[in-house]
Specification:
elongated, mainly alpha
C-alpha cells in the first residue's frame, strides 16, 4: 500500500493519464513503422506484454523504490489494447 496523501494521489493519476495518452500516440506510430518494415505487430504486442508483466511483478514485489515508473508502464500498456484491433484487422 502506497499510503499517498490526496495531492500525491491526484498527481500520480494525472501523470498516468498523460502517460496513457502519449503511449497511445507512440504505440500507434511504432505499430505503423513495424508494419511498414514488414514485421508482425504480434511480436510488438508480445514485447509489450512482457514489459507489462515485469512492471506488474515490480508492483507486486513492492521493492523499496518509488512505484510511479511501474504505474506509468501499466498506463502506457493500457493503450496497447488498440494493437489487438490492428492485428484483427490484418
Amino acid at each position: 500500500m502506497e499510503k499517498l496523501d490526496r495531492t500525491s494521489l491526484v498527481t500520480q493519476l494525472l501523470v498516468m493519464a498523460v502517460a496513457l495518452s502519449i503511449g497511445a500516440l507512440l504505440l500507434g506510430a511504432v505499430a505503423d513503422s513495424v508494419r511498414r518494415h514488414g514485421k508482425n505487430i504480434e511480436t510488438l504486442l508480445a514485447i509489450i506484454a512482457a514489459v507489462f508483466i515485469a512492471a506488474e511483478l515490480a508492483l507486486i514485489l513492492h521493492p523499496s523504490f518509488v512505484s510511479l515508473p511501474s504505474w506509468i508502464i501499466v498506463a502506457v500498456v493500457g493503450s496497447a489494447i488498440a494493437l489487438s484491433y490492428a492485428i484483427t484487422g490484418d
